[in-house]
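Our preliminary data section would be incomplete without showing what the modeling component actually yields. Below, a chain of 427 amino acids is followed by its predicted structure, encoded as tokens that our downstream tools consume directly.
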Amino acid sequence: MNPHHANLAFRMRPQTLDDYVGQEQLVGKSGIIRKMIENQTVSSMLFWGPPGSGKTTLAYLIAKSVKADFHALSGVTSGKKDLMEIVTQAQKNSVILGRSKSDDSRISTMNDSGQARKTILFIDEIHRWNKAQQDTLLPYVENGTIILIGATTENPSFEIISALLSRSRIFVLQSLGKKELQTIIQKALTDKKNGVGEYKKNISSDAEELLIRLSGGDARIMLNALEMAVTTYKEKEIKPETIKDIFQTKSAGLYDKKADEHYNIISAFIKSMRASNVDAALYYLARMIEGGEDPKFIARRMVIFASEDVGMAQPTAIVVANEVFKACETIGYPECAINLAHGTAYLALAKKSRAAVDAFARAREDVINFPNEPVPLHLRNAPTKLMKELGYAKDYSWQEGNVGAKEGLSYLPEKLKGRRYYEEVKK
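Predicted structure:
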């Protein structure tokens, strides 16, 4: 791709680790990835983080820093054939051909230190590869032919096979913060070579805040919207109206997902449902949706609320809340707003009971105060003759009409005998 024809997000990709913005915990002076690069000890790793957090860029910079042969695949469009072509090249890279540095074939497979050249394979959305595809990749990661860098927005524990997980370091990338995104915006506005500095435009503070908010912390979306604002609109200063026009939204209310208002509104949302005030709950839901809040964040809080606040008064609430969460995962915005509204109204109007969660809190307190109380012998399994002789499982039966311990025996440890944690829900 001609870099002059590429979009702004592509052109502004940093070329050195020092230019990389964000993920200080990984690439800062004491960051583990920076140390791996400095010591030339780069190994297979998985990047888990939200869209636009810099996963692809970081993979490219790692490969460039260690002078590795870099290949990138998409977990959506690539398959075994694409992988095997890269494996073939990686196997060539790992073999030193000849001894003369003037030998072109040797130069192509070696780095500057005279070692066989590493091959880094970056797989974006690796969670989209099925088990068979991941199994095909495994032996080449295992024997070091390929250094894998996988990127995923999903929990790798659920989506990546255990064998690959055990051979890879997992690094969690965080959403870029407001200051980091502001830095990226200013770099783009002043960079005349790769950015849009030649247009000599600036952005008002209100427009900048709105751009960051509506981009949802995704630097790619933000930069591409900024480029449109600079190149399509004539005004020298970018105003909020321009940003709203680009994102096709009329909303410009204050809602910063990392600031106090974010926590104020989610708190008001939960408290309104707890008070069974359905109108207020729907209002705060609308505030979050129009502010670009992640629908899964809202749905997760609803799942918690279903057990914590509705609980045993209406046990089906947890089913409804989980289905709302699944809908948000499957459908996404804008349609999943309907599912969120449905779930909000249901939870707000449901009867409330904290019986289960309060009972658990009381039980937990006893566990903290009495952490190692022995389990009564009659509740223990007795798989061996010795255990039976010691009284394990004695006076506990599974006979018809009598399942459980002999009458009068406690199910709790002796020191806690007679404790009552759960109080029945009043009808």
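The longest strand covers residues 69-74. The CA atoms of residues 86 and 296 lie 36 Å apart. Preliminary results of this kind motivate Aim 1 of the renewal.
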